[in-house]
Amino acid sequence: MATTSVRVTKRIRRTFRWSHLTAYLMVLPAIAFVAVFSYYPFVSTIQHAFTAWNGLSARPTGLANFRELAGDRIFLTSLRNVLIILAANLIKTVTVPLLVAELVFWLKNQRLAYLFRVLFVVPLVIPEVAFILVWKHIYAHNGFINNALRVLGAEGWVTNWLGQPDTAIAAIVFMGFPYVMVVPFLIYLASLKKITPAIFDSAQIDGANGLTRFLYIDLPLLRPALITMSMLAMISAFNGYYSILVLTDGGPGYSTMVPALHMYKTAFQFGRMGYGSAVATVLLVITATLTVGAMLLRRRVKT
Amino acid sequence: VKPAFSARRRRGWITEAAKIVPLTLLLIVTWIPLLLTISLSLRTQVSISLDYFALPWPPTFANYAAAWEKVGRNVLNSMAVSSVTAVLTLAVASIAAYAFARLRFRGKGLLFSSIITLLLVPYVLTVIPRFVIVRDLGLLGSAWVLVLPYVALTLPLAVFLLQDFFRQLPETLVEAARIDGAGELRIYVSVVLPLSLPITMTVAILNVLDTWNHYIWPLIVLRGNEGLRPVTVAIAYLAGESVLGFDYGLLMASYVLSMIPVLVLFIVAMRSFIHGVTGGALVE
Hints:
The complex is a heterodimer. Chain A has helices at residues 2-15, 18-48, 64-70, 73-94, 96-105, 110-121, 128-139, 144-151, 165-174, 182-194, 197-205, 210-239, 242-247, 259-268, 273-302; strands at 51-53, 58-60. Helix content of chain A is 74%, strand content 2%. In chain A, strands 1-2 form a two-stranded antiparallel ribbon. By secondary structure, chain B is mainly α. In chain B, 76% of the residues lie in helices and 0% in strands. Chain B has helices at residues 2-41, 45-50, 62-102, 108-116, 127-136, 144-168, 171-179, 184-195, 197-212, 216-221, 231-240, 248-278. Chain B is globular. At the A-B interface, helix 2, helix 5, helix 6, helix 7 and helix 8 of A face helix 1, helix 3, helix 4, helix 5 and helix 6 of B.
């Protein structure tokens, strides 16, 4: 009896050694930060989706928020818009950055390749707001596009690009042309560099030209990177409202509204934090589904 | 032999040109907004309204003086907030990452994934309770209302990148120090930290690029508190003010001011940035 208890205390002492305590103390600050500012808000968002909440007191209302959401015309318009933006984002992510990565990778002149890489990456330093504001100017009444149209003698085309429902959403999608997105570009380039040169050599011996090599070697080997970038593009499309807040504020009317902006406005302009939380919860569920789906797909592609 | 050689060389030159030409075109179009911004910022309002496409010659720097009056203070605000955030994030993340990478303790896997999973949770969606909690903690009105949530939001990536680096350090280095009788903290401070300077730099840059961009959060928590506004919010307000909104030169100069500190940082540390994005952990 006595010997077992000694053995048990010994084992406890072995599990909780001094170094264990040190380890816990080392991770404690990080855990505390994410607990307070990330996990608590996450749980709280879902909890309050089932309440009427003004930030001070919450009254449980069951599924009322979600029922209202199903008939909320602004929300339904915003879903249509987000699907347009999502499709555009996906296409942008897997085309131009991939093309640029391929062209830079296959340049023979290494100094030129380095120069192109640097010059394509530098625009990253433009703060997102400044970038969006510049585009807002490009679309403005006296901005770049309208002035260019006047110079080219196409006065008839001059219009208020962001001020009309039918051109506003197109203008939002067009923003950022020609879409050499920096992070996807760098990731694709890095993935190409990881491919063993022997594979390319044997392809060349087999007589593969540029296009067949791209289709049968580069593309399959880049698939994991393409899926990861697509997943990130989808998530950011669903949750982004930064650019729309600055460009159109969801207008004219609510023609360019997206769900996340709807969440922001109901919560912070109309004080309906419970309803805003319900919008957020729907978006969280959609995002989680997309993420898990993409991860499963990625695992299947990799093996 | 000679003609065949030159034919091959010419073909090589053509395929090279077939890459350079489209790359150059894409590069020019990509840079148009940036060049337009710089060009307009160097011109007077009168000159812009007379001929929008004229070159900024001779350049005027009056817009920059005026823009600094308007947003200079906000540029300094952003610099202060981003630097404090970067230092605090690195301190918290580095020590936690070391424990996750090199020490053994119960619940390690769970605690680690509880931090890393947050990389996939879009934080814009949990903004409502986050506002309520900073309000209840009494942070509204101080710069901590920006710094503390930024630290939490940027921690997962920092922990992820740093622990990946620490894991790859050769065990023999640590073992040697341990034999000399150094404790875990001592090993961390005197052996591991000096070695991790490059990766620390990378994480710091990614961190600043991230926090410099925040716009919606300061918009929410700094209402009626103009003194603390970061430059992102300041330039958006400037663009929204109806009279100034038409002074394109001034606006563009303020946009340029908002990017200069990041540009300087980027020039200093571009290599380590590109390496950080493409050097392993993220590409997997």
